[in-house]
Amino acid sequence: MREEPLIDRLKFAVRLSAGKRVLDIGGQKAYNCPTGDPYAAAYRKISGAAGQYAVLDRDPQDGVDYAADLNTADGREKLTRILDEYRPDVVICMEILEHLNYPCEIMARSPTG
Fold this sequence. Notes:
Layout: H1 9-17, E1 21-25, H2 28-31, H3 38-49, E2 52-57, E3 66-67, H4 73-86, E4 90-92, H5 103-108
Parallel strand pairs: 1-2, 1-4, 2-3
Helix pairs in contact: 1-3
C-alpha cells in the first residue's frame, strides 16, 4: 500500500497566504515565539508571504491587531464585525480551535455581503 505524503501545514499556509489579505486567529503566541525557534521561523513566513496580515487573539497586546475572546457571545459577535471590516481572503486558525468551547460555531462565521 502506498502512503500519501503528509502536508506540511506551515508550508501550505504560506502558499495559501501568498499575496492575500490574511487574518490569523489565535496566532499571536506562535508568531511571537523566540527567534531561534524553528517553528516560529517557519510560522513567520506566513506573514511575509501575505499581502496584508492581521492577528486576532484573546488579549490586546503587542502583535495583536484585533482582540476578542471567542469563548464569549460578545467575542463571537466581535469576530463577525472584524470579518466584515477586515474582509480577509484567507483565515488561518492553526493555534486556536483546540482552545475554544464552540469551535464549530466559530468556523461557521463568515463576512456578510
